[in-house]
Amino acid sequence: MGTQFTDIYNRFLGKITDDMYMELTPEDTIRDLRSLLIDAIPGFEFPRKRLDDYSIETLVIREDLVQEGDFVIGVVWNTPDEEEDEEIPDVYVERSHFDADLTSEEINILALLMMCAWLQRQVTSIENTRMKYSGSDFKMTSQANHLAKLLNLLTECQRQSFHMQRLYKRRRTNDEGYIESNWDVFRNGIYGDYKI
């Protein structure tokens, strides 16, 4: 099995702060994160791995069979065939994954692209067009100021994503595991079996 979606979800969630995810059910959280990830895939311009080969899997397994990297969505209690003395419950587990093993750099680029999609959602939210009022202890907030800050943040996120993809295209890992420039490809005029 390749890279699990949860690896990218965790990287993405480390980049944002959103109370909405605390209010959602685990099922809705996974559904939203999966949607953001799938929306982010086309933004990765020239990946070295096939990102369109992935499997969406949500399983029900015994809790003691949960593996590292599994995202436990919820516990299944009192199923009809469950015995009264059974102590280990079944759980819903998210095991969606890419068929390819992604590098940390590729995971980071996808997480950045997810962040761009999440920020775009914040910018286009209907809440930003409504006047925001708060209690008497606080000043009225300016939605224009808030929207301008979100737009600046979105622009910065897009710039960072573009920068990371540009770096990704310009370097490779050598046989010893060190990152090196791939400009010799252009200097020599040969890329794999192709002549430039």
Q: What does this protein structure show overall?
A:
With 196 residues, the chain is α+β, with helices and mostly antiparallel strands. 41% of the residues lie in helices and 15% in strands. It has six helices and nine strands; from the N terminus they run H-H-H-E-E-E-E-E-H-H-E-E-H-E-E. Strands 2-4-3 form a three-stranded antiparallel beta sheet. It has a two-stranded antiparallel sheet with strand order 1-5. Helix 3 (26-40) packs across helix 4 (104-124). It is flat. The model has no long low-confidence stretch (mean pLDDT 81).
**Helix share, percent:** 40-55%
What form results from the Cα inertia axes? Answer: flat
The string of secondary-structure elements, in order, is HHHEEEEEHHEEHEE
Low-confidence stretches: none
